[in-house]
Design a protein that fits this description.
455 residues; D-Maltodextrin-Binding Protein, domain 2; 3 domains; five-stranded mixed beta sheet; 19 helices; globular; SsuA/THI5; signal; ABC transporter substrate-binding protein
Length: 455
């Protein structure tokens, strides 16, 4: 996907302007000391990878970075060039080519970013985190709505679409290994961009799709897919983060600090106004706001916090072996790649320590009423179903956390289990069966029946 740029008229004057802009791009100066100059800061982001919104889509729409730059008072005029990409790979390519200063991407692409930067003499550093899930719930394997496949073992001999080198590919590999399958031998892996994979699943040329946010939730909401495997069953953290070119960070630490302050502001805005934030991201990306809220809502799959938590660094180290086995990287020095000095300074040591110690909220069920600017929370899935049953024409979306993993999912797309008087939701059928195996009398019930039982 090409970066979004504003085209200049094909005139000699415009060419001169373009030349001057190129000279001042990526932190360049028009004067020796930088005073009185115009500096362009180039930010690569993924608008539809919605767990990076606090460093991309939402941040851009709020204008916080530009405001922070304007408040520096260093005599420099700053311009921000926002470049939108479908995945992290082209962002890394542009960073190592000296054309992007700051980028955001998922954990596996971050490792490739670190490896490529070192290899090409343009080292990068992980400077903050955007959205994360400590159990791995940001990645999901889905199949077509009418597919007979109901477990990972059913994927043997099947065609599975994923983006090689992505966190979703890592989930696929680990999940298959735990199910006793060889990812290299027992499936035919199709290396495809998310949109291509979604089309392949719809056309029947792929039997399953393993992807990152927001594709699984989007396809489920649209009725084009159903969950086969909840990535949170791995119980391994997945996250997205911000990477910066080391040379840029050292040359312009105040600019990077301004970005991280702005990211924190965007994070605070998302936390305080989750519905409004979802609507803003939906407007900017074309994604349904209901899907955005599934991941980024008050009780969404992702938790947003710029602090680089030790659990996430530990997970990054475990991810290296997956990329090495796929021959996408060699060894990656994760400790050298992680650099929290800039975000720690941006937040202040006390606030940073508090964020490091903070724990994600325990997920609860939510109903988003039509026309409402906030959601309703429910103490139990049964209570949520009872409300939905009594207000069927007034519900925009309803979300329930998986009984085992805590991963939120659309209530009408969940697998429901009746266990005595309790009604329990699960993201995927295999997880539901595992619960039923340990609870005599429990049984799967259709969503319509669950609503009737609740009311």
């Amino acid at each position: 996907m090409k970066a979004k740029r504003t085209a200049l008229p094909a005139t000699a004057g415009a060419a001169t302007v373009a030349l001057l802009l190129s000279l001042t791009a990526c932190g360049g100066d028009a004067s020796a000391d930088g005073s009185g100059s115009t500096v362009t800061v180039t930010v690569g982001y993924q608008s539809r990878t919605i767990n990076t919104v606090t460093a991309g889509t939402l941040l851009r729409s709020l204008g916080y970075f530009e405001k922070q730059l304007n408040s520096l008072g260093d005599g420099v005029t700053y311009k921000v060039d926002w470049q939108d990409y479908a995945t992290g790979a082209p962002i890394t390519a542009q960073m190592t080519a000296g054309k992007i200063d700051i980028g955001s991407m998922g954990d596996f692409p971050l490792l490739i970013n670190a490896a490529r930067g070192k290899q090409l003499g343009k080292p990068t550093r992980l400077v903050s985190v955007t959205g994360y899930n400590l159990r791995g719930g940001l990645n999901t394997i889905v199949v077509a709505p009418g597919s007979p496949l109901t477990s990972l073992k059913d994927l043997k001999g099947k065609k599975v679409s994923t983006s090689v080198g992505s966190a979703a590919d890592g989930t696929l590999v680990r999940a298959l290994q735990r199910a006793g399958l060889d990812p290299a031998e027992d499936i035919e892996k199709l290396n495809q961009q998310p949109a291509v994979g979604a089309s392949a699943l719809d056309a029947g040329s792929a039997d399953a799709l393993s992807q990152f946010v927001a594709w699984p939730g989007l396809l489920a909401q649209q009725g084009k897919a159903k969950a086969l495997y909840d990535g949170a069953r791995l119980d391994l953290p997945t996250f997205h983060g911000v990477t910066a070119v080391e040379e840029f960070a050292k040359k312009r630490p105040a600019v990077l600090e301004a970005f991280l302050k702005a990211q924190t502001q965007a994070t605070d805005y998302l936390d305080a106004h989750p519905v409004a934030a979802a609507e803003k991201v939906a407007k900017a990306t074309g994604l349904p706001a209901e899907t955005v809220y599934l991941y980024n809502g008050a009780q969404g799959i992702a938790t947003f916090d710029p602090a680089i938590k030790p659990q996430l660094v530990a997970a990054l180290k475990e991810d290296v072996s997956i990329l090495k086995d796929a021959k996408l990287t060699g060894n990656v020095d994760v400790d050298a790649f992680v650099d929290d000095q800039y975000v720690k300074k941006a937040l202040g040591p006390t606030a940073y320590a508090e964020r490091l110690a903070a724990k994600p909220p325990k997920p609860a069920g939510e109903v988003w009423p039509k026309g409402a600017g906030k959601t309703l929370s429910f103490a139990s899935p049964t209570a949520l179903l009872r409300h939905v049953a009594g207000h069927r024409d007034e519900v925009r979306a309803a979300y329930v956390p998986d009984t085992t993993t805590g991963t939120p999912w659309f209530a009408d797309r969940a697998v429901w289990v009746a266990d005595g008087g309790a009604l329990l939701p699960f993201v995927a059928p295999e997880t539901a069966r595992a619960y039923i195996a340990g609870h005599g009398g429990a049984r799967v019930v259709p969503y319509a029946e669950a609503l009737e039982l609740a009311s």
